[in-house]
Write a structure and sequence with these properties.
single chain
């Protein structure tokens, strides 16, 4: 099971960021431009290239932001009672997440595993503004969620952590966005996709998002039915790309 891919995180950000910088510079006076250059020179490279530093959207108090190392949701599958955990992707999960995304053949990702590993790794420090969440089966009911990755989903809570979309499929800037839902083929049919989606929504809710969006191919009828089952409705479409834009109030 997988949805339409939309690249998240820094890989799709740099060009957009440069365009915004150019637009600001061209409309400023020469003194402002000089000041801007001075400020940019004083800004560390990491901050200058980090799309997750964005205070324009009302997030929870910084002291109350979800912590990547502590954020965790658990559930039990209905068919066999397997206990599963959903948490933020960690460094040790990167190869498994890259493998899932690569095997899903979602569009928009690097096609070489090494490049995809680096792409996923760049997202780690973005939590909670942007993240890949992993679903794992817990070992013997252990509190530690460290088993093999059986599912992944991408979550974005700020416009700068997701790729720009065509005007026909634009959505609210203060909404969350979910993409890249992939379940390990051998584990499908147990309701993991639905549970993983609900966990992704909970992270959006904790970041004060009141609605969440996603794109899905019109050819994936079963996936559309899943989204409708858990409360999504169609709010836009693109005939040429055969994509639907769906939304859910959370």
């Amino acid at each position: 099971m997988h949805a339409t891919s939309t690249r998240l995180f820094v890989g799709s950000y740099h060009h957009h960021h440069r365009e915004r910088q150019t637009g600001v510079a061209s409309s400023s006076s020469s003194s402002h431009t000089a000041n801007d250059k001075s400020r940019r020179a004083e800004t560390p490279l990491l901050a200058a290239s980090n799309p997750f530093i964005d205070d324009s959207i009302p997030y929870p108090d910084p002291d109350n932001l979800p912590n990547r190392h502590e954020w965790k949701k658990t559930f039990t599958t209905e068919n066999d009672g397997t206990r599963c955990c959903v948490r933020a992707c960690d460094l040790s999960d990167v190869p498994a997440v890259a493998s899932l995304l690569l095997r899903s053949k979602l569009a928009g990702f690097p096609t070489e595993e090494a490049a995809l590993n680096k792409y996923v790794e760049k997202s780690l420090d973005a939590f909670p503004r942007g993240a890949y969440l992993v679903c794992v089966k817990e070992n013997g009911g252990s509190e530690k969620c460290s088993s093999s990755v059986v599912g992944v989903v991408g979550v974005s809570n700020t416009p700068d952590t997701r790729k720009d979309f065509e005007r026909a499929l634009q959505f609210s800037e203060d909404g969350g966005y979910i993409s890249d839902l992939v379940i390990e083929p051998r584990c499908r049919g147990a309701g993991l996709g639905e549970k993983l989606m609900l966990c992704a929504e909970s992270l959006c809710r904790e970041m004060n998002r009141n609605e969440v969006y996603l794109h899905v191919s019109t050819r994936k009828v079963g996936v559309i039915r899943l989204y409708e089952k858990i409360g999504y409705e169609e709010v836009g479409s693109n005939f040429l790309r055969r994509d639907l834009l769906m939304r859910k109030k959370i």
